[in-house]
Amino acid sequence: MNLESPVSVSLGELLDDLIDFWAGVCKVDIRITREVDEIVSADLIATQCIIEVVRESISNAVKHDSAENVTVTLTVSYARAVDLLVSHPVTGDKVLSKSDSVVGFGSHLYDELTLNWSLSQRDMSIDMYATFLVLP
Q: CA nearest 8: which of 134, 113, 132?
């Protein structure tokens, strides 16, 4: 992606590409409003950051938890901030442990590309939250 190009790229279309990429391995459900798509798509750097974090989060869900379903939700939280939630159900007695939060490539990626992020377990799902700043 040429970040110096004035042409905008639709975040929604790029997320749709991830659905196609994971087809047959994991069902990816994308929840994005027109507002989020318009705000983010105008900022090519934010678009690229969000796509890379979503890609890594889906990959982690499949690799570490054998996820068959992942839900990606993007919302505008305030002004120019976009919140991301990547969630997947876990079965059996899976409990998020210290070993699940070992600092690796994904943690470094999240640290560099987000304002903040966290990983938590809620009932029978594991959730990765992140916030991105989007420039006008």
A: 134
